[in-house]
């Protein structure tokens, strides 16, 4: 019975956060190294791990979640192995080395609780873009896990004069030092995204990366767990 399933067993822990397959996150939990994770994302755990929904550190920005531009978080503490997932989405693990990332809150799965974070206004972006005016910015030394509807691509903007254009509903995250602006295009409305009405894009320029998922349909991404 066990032999045919051996290939699905967890591998030895090598890092604080790592993928178990493409659609699951494995977190090595230790006392004093707490985690903030999307509410409802826990699928399994080993050891002694406790959960606190809507901890005090999270309540300060709860007002922004009411608008649908964020997702509730829970605080995870204890020792053991924690497994997280989000409706079968691909999981992308990032180790921040003193830098930062700006994340669409619907794509945020988990991050180290000691990292600096908060909801911020996306400068230069008008309300017409599907991304909204707010994003979650995370910075410091630690781990972050994102989700993507399909295998994402990472575009290096390269710091040149050319801009990188992204469909707002396909955008996952970007380097916070990039310049962002919205662009409206009537002629391209049948070529970009779902092709209904005007075509809106987000334009990025400067030195940094943009993470893009192979999906423009945000319906599945904005479901909020209770």
From TrEMBL:
Pfam families: AIM24. InterPro entries: AIM24 (IPR002838), AIM24_sf (IPR036983), Trp_RNA-bd_attenuator-like_dom (IPR016031). Gene3D superfamilies: Mitochondrial biogenesis AIM24. This is AIM24 family protein. It comes from Streptomyces yokosukanensis.
């Amino acid at each position: 019975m066990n032999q045919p399933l051996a290939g699905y067993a967890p591998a030895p822990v090598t890092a604080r956060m790592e993928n178990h397959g493409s659609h699951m996150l494995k977190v090595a939990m230790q006392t004093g190294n707490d985690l903030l994770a999307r509410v409802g994302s826990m699928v399994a755990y080993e050891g002694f791990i406790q959960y606190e929904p809507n901890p005090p550190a999270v309540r300060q920005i709860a007002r922004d979640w009411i608008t649908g531009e964020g997702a509730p978080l829970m605080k995870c503490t204890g020792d053991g192995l924690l497994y997280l997932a989000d409706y079968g989405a691909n999981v992308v693990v990032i180790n921040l080395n003193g830098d930062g990332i700006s994340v669409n809150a619907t794509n945020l799965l988990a991050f180290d609780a000691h990292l600096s974070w908060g909801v911020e206004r996306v400068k230069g972006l008008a309300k017409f873009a599907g991304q909204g005016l707010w994003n979650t910015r995370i910075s410091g030394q630690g781990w972050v896990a994102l989700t993507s509807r399909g295998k994402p691509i990472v575009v290096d903007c390269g710091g040149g004069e050319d801009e990188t254009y992204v469909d707002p509903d396909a955008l996952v995250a970007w380097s916070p030092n990039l310049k962002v602006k919205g662009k409206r295009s009537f002629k391209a409305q049948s070529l970009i995204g779902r092709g209904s009405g005007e075509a809106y894009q987000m334009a990025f320029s400067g030195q940094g990366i943009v993470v893009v998922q192979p999906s423009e349909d945000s319906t599945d991404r904005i479901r909020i767990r209770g």
